[in-house]
UniProtKB/TrEMBL annotation, chain A:
Lineage: Bacteria, Pseudomonadati, Pseudomonadota, Alphaproteobacteria, Sphingomonadales
Source species of the chain: Sphingomonas metalli
GO terms, molecular function: FAD binding; oxidoreductase activity
PANTHER family: ALDEHYDE OXIDOREDUCTASE FAD-BINDING SUBUNIT PAOB, XANTHINE DEHYDROGENASE SUBUNIT C-RELATED
Keywords: FAD, Flavoprotein
SUPFAM superfamilies: CO dehydrogenase flavoprotein C-terminal domain-like, FAD-binding/transporter-associated domain-like
Protein name, entry field: Oxidoreductase
Pfam families hit by this protein: FAD_binding_5
InterPro entries from the UniProt entry: CO_DH_flav_C (IPR005107), CO_DH_flav_C_dom_sf (IPR036683), Diverse_Substr_Oxidored (IPR051312), FAD-bd_PCMH (IPR016166), FAD-bd_PCMH-like_sf (IPR036318), FAD-bd_PCMH_sub1 (IPR016167), FAD-bd_PCMH_sub2 (IPR016169), Mopterin_DH_FAD-bd (IPR002346)
Domain FAD-binding PCMH-type: 1-223
Domain of life: Bacteria
From TrEMBL, chain B:
Pfam name, any one: MoCoBD_1
Superkingdom assignment: Bacteria
Coiled coil: none
SMART domains: Ald_Xan_dh_C
Record-level Gene Ontology MF annotations: iron ion binding; oxidoreductase activity
Domain Aldehyde oxidase/xanthine dehydrogenase a/b hammerhead: 32-138
Xref: InterPro entries: Ald_Oxase/Xan_DH_a/b, Ald_Oxase/Xan_DH_a/b_sf, Ald_Oxase/xanthine_DH-like, AldOxase/xan_DH_MoCoBD1, AldOxase/xan_DH_MoCoBD2, AldOxase/xan_DH_Mopterin-bd_sf, PaoC-like
Biological source species: Sphingomonas metalli
NCBIfam families the record matches: peri_hyde_PaoC
Official protein name in the record: Oxidoreductase
Length: 321, 742
């Protein structure tokens, strides 16, 4: 770990200004991902801005009938909030499918959105990685890629976004609220928040330098059956091979986002029109253009089957309701 | 004490302490965090500096140049040792690759430097400032292609499993050709990492030319010799201390880079230095269980009797290394007149392969016990009955040599009853529970019982406290407790009057912990020393040792009774002895047996496999402490779940390293994967094994588990997978197509 300086910010605007003022600065909240990466010198911030004192730890109702989840709300608090559980069950279920109880107690809403890939070549500093060292190449391409992306990848990067929460936020059409150093705010739709790797895989989100996440806003509840189905090699504490976040309405219409297959939560709104025709039609459309590797070709049929499982679960849920 | 005739009745048979379920006596130290582990020896090396090991960034080649300037100038740095300034180093007898590489690099993450600094963080930061320019050489990293030209190679795992290069009994080829029912199948098992909780760690301190290493090591006497050989110093100048070991699984049988780099760092820095390998270093810097490619052929009569059985296995290792002895159990487990076993060893430039819990049998049974399941199906026989039909009470290669005890049939029969095996559907893919396809599987467990000489010193002080000292190690198995039970039983004192001191090379040399030989041999050694001490006590009291009893802290002979404290006198009494074995192991085959039963569910949508319940019935001689033995077996069963379902070091065959080298990438079971385990020990004593009449269980609990799980998966799905681990991607495409219409 490189030596670094440290300060505490007390307001979101302070945090954003401090970040712009100090090149190489990073925000730290729970630190569940950043500290590990610093120990490995994958992240080498020269300055840390502790944002835990910025007061963004509440979940509030919005005038539009939705919820505004403060950036510092812990994963545990978000998942166990009665309103989230009742109206946005897919989000609650996605969060508890991730990490461990201890990590969820520390991890925050904004931090979770910003967690970095678990590509093993990203984690080994002897290996070429365009995320770690832009321009150095991608050792994962042609290497061990069972966990890695099957769609939306590029010649520069085949890493995935590893999280669960963001997959649910994507299906819920959440927006990410931010403040910049100049005090201006904006709302970034989840669809645009995470980026595909393209030629700049080190640029992972739409955030500009210094921009600070203040909240994630959920629109008014969608109703319907909420399902989060996470597929993994062991029963807990593992990243998804494939996950499906789905909200299915009583009339068979619905929406679905897929985790574990791309550099961002994968959702193709146009494919959802096919939902009444069944899981295969939806999956075929969502994964059109997939370019899996030999190691992860199984993810393509697995998406279809997991989507089928999620839709069956929704159907059973509807029957039981 | 020479043990060369079967044990008669002896003081252990009283079973007042031995054989009783006894919570471990070191438990409070561990639960309160006060058991001193190797990296936490503030008590004896309070001013230790921190060493951080730098691993090679290539798998094979040379260091062209190494630039230490920036690292040397970094804050807190006290010393940096590389091959350039380490002096001439030797190599341990148990090591294949050198523990300090450079300029030649033999494998990825081979240690090339240790940076010593005032704090761990400083050492790590400075280590990242070392600039190394490598010249990569072409390496051999792909087992399948390397095996094509690999020679036959016999060997011993060093842990009791062994086989010659090729071994023929009868005429396999003719018998197989003539057999009316045949199987010929290929199975693979992957490289696996020990991933014990406590990483390899050592604290080193020099006093002149004498070295003390507080380390985490299973085999103290081996370690002492190899440290001396590596550092080119006399063995008598080396002291190893390893009282607590946070798991080893074979990964700490040998001296590794932590110990040598701590010693070199301490010498260079002129003060004590401690080194722990970081988790990402473990798979590539230390040893691992080698991958295997196995071929099994079985020929049977229609009556289900095996007439021909062949097991061939190929594995790879660095030059000078050895094969994974995956065929060895096949020499002994089932009857059959015509037999063939063979092993091939390919040269690979991957990290060093070596022993991991039940080397040989663990991967060997993962193949053999699936082959037996496949054969039973071909014969239309129940797999339990098929195994029973081919039981043998003698060494099938040398029929005049009997097993000392062999209750495999009893294990299988009792297990079948207790598990509800009669509810298993012979035809696969028949049972559903909601989204789950349900299946049951069985496998035989088999592991040899090894006899190793083992010594101890036992003393009584003026308060009547019995102290045992031996270099035996407790790697989390419960050794402290069973040794205390043995001494308490033999000396006739309560358990709380026994003190056990372990893991110090200044103590008499023991069998050490490995190959599931620790419990039987180390307690037999303690028993021998106790019997010698009893003689000294009797002699001092003028008692006739023939009719002396030791009971309730008193020594009695006829109508005379003296307390042990009094008998010990002001200066106490002490005796040293050990167990040594005659040729009983030659005359009898000594092995341990189990029946493993597993029920799994396979998600019909996603192919995910989850174990629902497991049962092991074990026949392993006298069980010295049922609590500790059960813990060993359920831990091993858990490891078997890992081996069957998830554990695999993924090889990058371009760059020659294990890619998933941390616990996020190398998955082992979590609690949610292990819902229900049951263990039954058959009531057995084996007077051929030792005066304790005990054998080992720590590896038996693993042997066969993977096969039972694989068989249960097949029973659930009807899809046979012969490549471990059985992850969902391997059978997904063959599961019934399903989709959902809303």
């Amino acid at each position: 770990m490189k030596p670094f300086t440290y300060e505490r910010a007390t307001t979101p605007a302070d945090a954003a200004r401090a970040a712009l003022r100090t090149p190489g600065a990073k925000f730290i909240a729970g630190g569940t991902n950043l500290l590990d990466l610093m120990k490995l010198e994958i992240e080498v911030p020269r300055h840390l801005i502790d944002v835990n004192g910025t007061g963004l730890d509440r979940i509030e109702a919005t005038p539009q009938g939705g919820l505004r989840i403060g950036a510092l709300v812990s994963n545990t608090d978000c998942a166990s909030d009665a309103r989230v559980r009742r109206d946005y069950a897919v989000l609650s279920r996605a969060i508890v499918a991730g990490a461990s109880g201890q990590l969820r107690n520390k991890a925050t809403t904004a931090g979770n959105l910003l967690q970095r890939t678990r590509c093993p070549y990203f984690y080994d500093t002897n290996q070429a990685c365009n995320k770690r060292r832009p321009g150095s190449g991608c050792a994962a391409i042609g290497g061990y890629s069972r966990q890695l992306a099957v769609i939306g990848s590029s010649e520069a990067c085949i890493a995935t976004y590893p999280g669960d929460m963001a997959v649910a936020l994507r299906v819920l059409d959440a927006t990410v609220e931010t403040v910049k150093a100049d005090g201006t705010t904006r709302a970034i739709p989840m669809a645009e928040f995470h980026r595909l790797p393209g030629t700049t895989p080190h640029v992972e989100t739409a955030l500009v330098p210094g921009e600070f996440i203040t909240a994630v806003t959920l629109p008014a509840p969608l109703g319907g059956q909420h399902v989060y189905r996470k597929v993994r090699d062991r029963a807990s504490y593992a990243f998804a091979l494939v996950s499906v976040a789905a909200v299915i309405q009583p009339d068979g219409r619905g929406r679905a986002a897929i985790g574990g297959i791309a550099h961002k939560p994968w959702r193709v709104e146009a494919a959802e029109a096919a939902m009444p025709r069944g899981s295969k039609a939806v999956a075929d459309h969502m994964l059109a253009g997939a370019r899996p590797t030999r190691d992860n070709a199984f993810k393509v049929p697995l998406v279809e089957r997991t989507l089928a499982a999620a839709m069956a679960e929704a159907k059973a849920g509807k029957a039981a309701a | 004490m020479k043990f060369d005739t079967p044990a008669g009745t002896n003081p252990i048979d009283q079973l007042k302490v031995v054989g009783r379920p006894t919570p471990r006596i070191d438990g409070p130290l561990k639960t309160s965090g006060t058991a001193p582990y190797a990296y936490e020896r503030h008590d004896v090396a309070p001013n230790a500096a921190y060493g951080y090991v730098v691993g090679a960034g290539i798998a094979k080649g040379r260091i062209r140049s190494i630039d230490l300037a920036e690292a040397k100038a970094a804050p807190g740095v006290l010393a940096i040792v590389t091959a350039d300034n380490a002096g001439k180093l030797g190599k341990g007898r148990m090591n294949t690759a050198r523990l300090l590489g450079g300029p030649e690099i033999e494998h990825y993450h081979q240690a090339v430097a240790v940076v010593v600094a005032e704090t761990f963080e400083q050492a790590r930061a400075a280590a990242n400032l070392i600039r190394i320019d490598y010249a990569r050489a072409k390496g051999r990293f792909d087992l399948d292609s390397a095996l094509k030209a690999a020679p036959l190679k016999g060997d011993s795992s060093g842990e009791g499993s062994s086989a010659p290069p090729i071994d023929r009994v009868g005429d396999f080829d003719a018998a197989f050709a003539a057999a009316p029912v045949k199987l010929d199948a290929r199975y693979t098992t992957p490289d696996q990492s020990h991933m014990m909780m406590e990483p390899h760690a050592s604290t080193a301190a020099w006093d002149g030319d004498r070295l003390t290493l507080w380390t985490s090591n299973q085999m103290i006497a081996w370690g002492k010799g190899d440290v001396a050989r590596t550092l080119n110093i006399p063995a008598e100048n080396v002291r190893l201390v390893s009282p607590y070991v946070g798991g080893g699984f074979g990964g700490k049988l040998f001296v590794r880079a932590d110990a040598i780099m701590a010693a070199l760092g301490a010498k260079a820095a002129g003060r004590p230095v401690k080194v722990a390998l970081t988790r990402p270093m473990m798979p590539n810097n230390t040893t691992h269980r080698p991958a295997t490619v196995q071929r099994i052929r079985i020929g049977c009569g229609r009556d289900g009797r095996i007439t021909a059985i062949a097991h061939e296995s190929g594995s790879g290792d660095l030059p000078g290394g050895g094969p994974e002895t995956a065929v060895s159990q096949t020499k002994l487990l089932y009857a059959g007149a015509n037999r063939l076993t063979a092993m091939r060893l390919a040269v690979l430039d991957l990290p060093e392969g070596n022993a991991m819990r039940a080397p040989g049998e663990a991967p060997g049974l993962m193949a053999l016990e699936v082959a037996m399941d496949e054969m039973a199906e071909k014969l239309g026989m129940d797999p339990v009955e098929f195994r029973i039909r081919n039981d043998t009470q003698v060494d099938p290669e040398k029929p005049d040599r009997k097993f000392s005890q062999r209750q495999l049939v009893e294990c299988l029969r009792l297990g079948a009853t207790r598990f509800g095996w009669d509810r298993r559907q012979a035809k696969p893919g028949q049972v559903r529970d909601g989204q789950w396809l349900i299946g049951m599987g069985v496998a035989a467990g088999f592991r040899n019982n090894l006899l190793m000489k083992s010594a101890a010193r036992v003393g009584i002080d003026r308060k009547g406290v019995v102290t045992v000292a031996t270099d035996m190690t407790d790697i989390g198995t419960g050794t402290y407790t069973i040794i205390a039970q043995t001494a308490a039983e033999t000396m006739g004192v309560p358990l709380d009057k026994v003190v056990v001191l372990l893991g110090d090379s200044d103590f008499p040399a023991s069998a050490g912990s490995g190959g599931q030989w620790g419990a039987n041999n180390s307690t037999a050694g303690v028993y021998a020393a106790c019997m010698k001490l009893r003689e000294s006590v009797a002699q001092r009291l003028g008692f006739n040792s023939g009719d002396v009893t030791f009971e309730g802290g008193k020594v009695r002979s006829g109508n005379r009774s003296v307390s042990l404290a009094e008998a010990a006198g002001e200066n106490g009494l002490s005796a040293e002895d050990g167990i040594e074995y005659g040729d009983l192991a030659k005359r009898y085959q000594q092995s341990t047996f189990a029946g493993h039963f597993v029920e799994v569910g396979v998600d019909r949508w996603t192919g995910e496999v989850r174990v629902r319940r497991m049962l092991a019935v074990c026949a392993a001689g006298r069980i010295l402490n049922p609590i500790a033995a059960r813990s060993q077996v359920i831990g091993a069963m858990t490891m078997g779940v890992g081996a069957a379902l998830m554990e695999e070091l993924a090889v990058d065959t371009r760059f020659g390293f294990f890619v998933n080298h941390d616990l996020a990438g190398y998955e082992v079971p979590v609690h949610a994967d292990i819902p229900h385990q049951e263990v039954i020990f058959l009531d057995e004593t084996d007077p051929i094994s030792s005066p304790m009449k005990a054998k080992g269980v720590g590896e038996l609990g693993l042997c066969g588990v993977g096969g039972a799980i694989a068989n249960a998966i097949y029973n659930a799905t009807g899809v046979r997978i012969r490549d471990y681990p059985i992850t969902l991607d391997k059978h997904l495409a063959k599961l019934a197509a399903i989709q959902t219409q809303v």
